Input
Amino acid sequence: MDLDTPTAPAPGTRSGRPRLAIVLLNLGGPDAPESIRPFLVNLFTDPAILRVPGFIRPWLGRLIAWRRTRPATENYAILGGKSPLLELTVQQGEALEALLNADGTAEVKCFTAMRYWHPMSDETAAAVKAWGPDEVILLPLYPQYSTTTTGSSALAWIKAAARARLEVPTTTICCFHSHPGFASSTAAIVRGAWDRARAELDPAIPLRVLFSAHGLPESIVTAGDPYQWQVEQTVAGVVARLDLPGLDHVVCFQSRVTPQKWIGPSTEDELERAGHDKVAVLVVPIAFTSEHSETLVELDVEYREEAEKLGVPGYFRSPAQNSHPGFIGALADLVRHGRTSGRTLCSFAGPRQCPKQHKDCPHAALVAKLEAMPGTPPERTARARTTA
Ligand SMILES: C=CC1=C(C)c2cc3[nH]c(cc4nc(cc5[nH]c(cc1n2)c(C)c5CCC(=O)O)C(CCC(=O)O)=C4C)c(C)c3C=C
Ligand SMILES: [Fe+2]
Ligand SMILES: [Fe+2]
Output
């Protein structure tokens, strides 16, 4: 055997490059009609979603889930009784893995950790541990940070990783609301939809863009959740790249599922206004990066019917990002940035992005934790404040 000639590692052995596990964080959805109820129970008993005292939550959460089961079952029936979310997330992971492996700087494998249905964090943490990574990146598929989505998923992951004794340096990407690659790829998708809509529509009819994001109870935003502010940042970034001067557009919020007051204006109110103004609408889902029940049913079926009833003279919908190459490129860029940042928590641009009134920004929690540590020198917290 020639000892001077390097040999390729045998299949199944280490490549010599560090192993990087990317954990895609997503919401999850039922995989069969019988999983709709337990999926909803998981969702409504999450303390990040149902903010009532702990002793009431299991009861109230189950009651709300029970009441929601029928409408949710009707919605998922239109999609064949299940959510397409896992399949689409796995496709995004495969595309991202291929792109990053081509860099040659790490051996990359993507995993999926869903918050409310399988594969959930415990299963995924065990799989990640079995693979033996040197580094982990947590990458949410939510562009905007909310305590109810990325915050809840990251917390579930931290607990599951501890249970699995997965002790590997981990970087969490908290948000990418205004990442230039994300904004440009979204603008390219929206521009395509705009051009198709304009080609179909009578030139005399004006077209308004409704950027429709998943809503949140107003109390969660008032408490400090940065989501609404981040949604507005995304819309500004996308509009700036659309190259449509004077574009008539609005940010609105869909999918209200509880009786509390939710942030507005609601997408339904905006449809009513469009009917009144006699303008056609292009609805753009802006807070979630794959197709799911709320785009395929709520937007494509329910709101379309509503728009017709309200006399809206045209109804069009822009697709979600899914595995659009520009979007996957943006995800790859976020991972590269996270790896070299040396941070455990990292926004798309490194330091904290949210103005300080949004105190549920996870970077604020990091500073609070440092401040609470006995004997932390004041200059350390001051530094964390500026760089967190
Ligand atoms: C109080 C309830 C809810 C809050 C707050 C909430 C926040 C939130 N959700 C998403 C994205 C998705 N939610 C999805 C489904 C879904 N969400 C809720 C409730 C709240 N969401 C329910 C009850 C459901 C189940 C479906 C239904 O009953 O209609 C999904 C879809 C999953 C799928 O179809 O596969 C997504 C995506 C965001 C971005 C968000 C806050 C920022
Ligand atoms: Fe939701
Ligand atoms: Fe933030």
